[in-house]
Amino acid sequence: MSDGFLYESFRGVDWGVATADAIAAPPPPPPERGGHFRQWTDDIRQLVGVTPDAHRMVAGWPRLQPDGPGAWDRQALDRCDRALDSLLELGLKPGLTLFDRSLPPWLEASGGWLARDTAEHFAAFAAELGRRFGDRVTRWITSTDLAGPTLADHVAGMYTPGRGIGRAGLPTVHHILLANGLATQALRAAGASGLIGTTVTLVGGYPATDDPFDRLALERLESWTNRLFLDPMLLGEHMVTEDDVSPVEATGCVHPGDLEIIATAQDMLGLSWHTPFRVTAPENLPHVLPADKCLGTLNEVNRLLVGLGFAITPFDDVETTAYGWPLIPEALADAVADLHDLYGELLPPLSVIDNGMGDLDLVDETGHSDDARRRALLRARLSWLGRVIARGVPVCGYEYWSVLDNLEAKFRYTRLYAMAVPDHEPPPRPPMPSDWVRGGAFASPVPSGAAAGLTLVPTGPRAQSVGAP
Questions:
Q1: Which of 137, 229, 292, 336 is at a distance of 20 to 30 A from 128, taking alpha carbons?
Q2: Does pLDDT of 421 surpass 90?
Q3: Would you call 279 helix, strand, or coil by DSSP?
Q4: In 23-104, where do the E strands start and end?
Q5: Are the C-beta atoms of residues 146 and 230 closer than 8 Å to each other?
Q6: CA–CA distance, 192 with 195 (Å, rounded to integer)
Q7: How far apart are CA 118 and CA 177, in angstroms?
Q8: Is 54:25 a contact under the CB 8 Å cutoff?
Q9: DSSP conformational letter for 226
């Protein structure tokens, strides 16, 4: 695939870098800043012939309001002002993320995302930042990730031991979606001039076999990830099971008018991409894996997932990164195409927030960064994505995360997610929260009528591959 094709396919796409650094925080020493942005800029200039000019950072809610609503840290606000002005002076378009996993301590103490009031406080926070910075920010992202602080933390207990309460934690999903709708409305009311949207973690993959139950298992995975957040935003209704039960609504957290707020139109939607999955029905594990590997595959991750009707297995004969992420260049394009097939014109313009290779060890024989290898893999991924764009999928932006961002998830979970550790290496045994060892996160009691709601509505025929670049 020629770079000329890449240039034509991505004409009009905004290129940039995303970083989790909070601009409200004191800046780190100069040598620690800018390296990843320059590397990413050089890669895109080489491949596409354009210079990325967008830079997105996190506002830093815990630093800006450490002591309660209305109690602002003036020094932190000043640092935000200076950082935004510095980006503009460099000719960069500032993007600002309002929330990145961490709430202010006073909100955590009052229940965090389990408390409905958190959505109202977030809207007030967004309104004030829109008033202060609305003339300088070109892209507003309400949250780095909707699933991490809700589904992963309060439902599955992945991050904070003791917080994984199963389906009783599903109100957090509703509340963060409500917060996104309220914040979007508040930013517009405050006169913010930039595009407004949020970020969801895009989940995609392939059935392990041609068995229809493996295909159904993949649809269950995508329903409990993509549809759980996007059905309310784009369809105005919470995801339901094939028994017409909504696991979120069954908790009693939905109030009249909430879904209209959640469905507030977005100017763009960020898709954070990690890695593709190879998915099977739990009963098919003995057919997918050699018998001596079945038990090892039922680790803490799959012990949770099998309760929802699917399991994750390694890809066969696929090269991986040092973290165990499979190198499948077409996987991102396939996942984006599947999402477009599901929602069609209801999807707002998409900005791919790519975690890159997720690999600290991509070096050549001299021990230096292997630029040629990295760019070859990026070119392959962009070539596949370019074909999806050419077929009408509205991709408006593409950003890289810094390789140093989100290290906790990388070191604790990514290899377990990918389930693709080389045979010559011992399986990873990172410390897992006690919630995952005691039992499945979805084993907690639920309201009457919701207990059977684990088999999900199939989402229709799976999208075909968009063709090799």
A1: 229
A2: no
A3: strand
A4: 54-58, 93-99
A5: no
A6: 8
A7: 11
A8: no
A9: I
